[in-house]
Amino acid sequence: MKIQESKSGSVIILELNGRLDASTSGILEKKLMDSLDGGEKFFILDFNQLDYISSAGLRVLLMAAKKTNGIGGKVALSCLKEHVKEVFDIAGFTAIFPICFTQEDAAKLF
Predict the structure, then answer these.
(1) Domain boundaries in the chain?
(2) CA angle at residue 10 from 52 to 44, to 5 degrees?
(3) Quick one: three-class SS letters along the chain?
(4) Homologous superfamily of domain range 2-107
(5) d(Cα 51, Cα 28) in Å, to the nearest integer?
(6) How distant is the alpha carbon of residue 42 from its chain centre?
(7) Contacts of 89 (CB under 8 A, 6+ apart)
(8) Which residues pair with 69 in a beta bridge?
(9) pLDDT tens digits for range 42-80
(10) Alpha-carbon distance 12 to 17, whole Å?
(11) pLDDT tens across 4-32, in order?
(12) Distance from CA of residue 17 to its chain's centroid?
């Protein structure tokens, strides 16, 4: 999995490309933890190029949501492919994360 990082105002945008599973979830976890440790608290995760997410990936996202919510921050998701969104629906994560069609829509939440 590759992660492209950019920043728009106070929001960190992470564009994920590939598969978010047990072998790659540590990459995202480190990126998020480093950003949180650096004082960042607003994130958009763009899943436009994310092909697959496993329970290990969901765990990292849940951890990020708990940490950001605890400091008054937020994680929003954008551009989910239908099969990835189904995983979020089944896992009940659509109640935890705002899910937007575009990065621009997600940016309006901050």
Answers:
(1) 2-107
(2) 15
(3) CEEEEEEECCEEEEEEEEEECCCCHHHHHHHHHHHHHCCCCEEEEEEEEEEEECHHHHHHHHHHHHHHHHCCCEEEEECCCHHHHHHHHHHCHHHCCCEECCHHHHHCCC
(4) STAS domain (3.30.750.24)
(5) 15
(6) 10
(7) none
(8) none
(9) 999 999 999 999 999 999 999 999 999 999 999 999 999
(10) 16
(11) 999 999 999 999 999 999 999 999 999 99
(12) 12
Tell me the torsion sign for CA atoms 103, 85, 89, 69: negative
Would you say 47 and 103 are in contact if contact means Cβ atoms under 8 Å apart?
Answer: no
- Amino acid of residue 51: D
Chain mean position to CA 4? 12
CA 54 vs CA 24, 47, 58, 73, 102: distances in Å? 10, 14, 6, 24, 22
* One-letter identity of residue 62: L
User: pLDDT value at position 9?
Assistant: 94
